[in-house]
Amino acid sequence: MEEKLKQQTGNCIKVVLFGPESTGKTTLSKQLAAYYKTEWVPEFAREYLQKKWDATKEICSYDDLILIAEGQMELENQALKKANKVLICDTDLLETKVYSEVYFNNLVHPDLDKFSIENTYDLYLLTYIDTPWMPDDLRDKPDEREKMFDAFKKALDDHNRPYIIIKGDRKSRLETAVKAINQLIKT
Fold it and tell me: Which PANTHER family does this one have (predicted)?
């Protein structure tokens, strides 16, 4: 199991979109990948949990989280091989850990905990809650957006992750992200 959660190394800058549900992570991920003409890593949990919901009408269980983490790292490691100087990740294992803490009373699988900390990224783009809530089959915390944002910010602070907060409309968000990523490319 541990091997499936290990991050492969590469020669590109790794950027993670991070934050609560329905805050524009996927939209910005796609925009950034197009801007840099590179790969983006979709959120494995979204497809996995949507298939589960469609088949059984069941939501995420604690046991799903390690499978989600393994699937996320598989997607990331595959995309890394094709990335062009920047790899855009729609999420990472630290985000999965935050959801585990929130939904399962601070219970986190030991391997998820370990690799959420060991796997590293050059920049986190913490998406703020100033986007409209878009309901779907999986989203369930429209009234807890601020609490969720605070949980994600705390995780970044607690683990000393480099991040900036992304706010505003789509154009502003893209401009802010590009400026920060370009600073990394220059160094």
Answer: NADR_TTD14 AAA DOMAIN-CONTAINING PROTEIN (PTHR37512:SF1), TRIFUNCTIONAL NAD BIOSYNTHESIS/REGULATOR PROTEIN NADR (PTHR37512)
Parent domain of 122: 2-186
Q: Annotate 76-89 with b (16+ C-beta within 10 A) or e (fewer).
A: bbebbeebeebbbb
Neighbour tally for 162: CB within 10 Å: 12
Distance CA 158, CA 153 (A): 9
8, 77 contact by CB (below 8 A)? yes
CATH assignment of the domain containing 62: 3.40.50.300
User: Rounded CA gap, 93 and 101, in Å?
Assistant: 12
Tokens encoding 169: 């409309």
pTM score, two decimals?
0.95
Note whether 108 and 97 are within 8 A (CB). Answer: yes
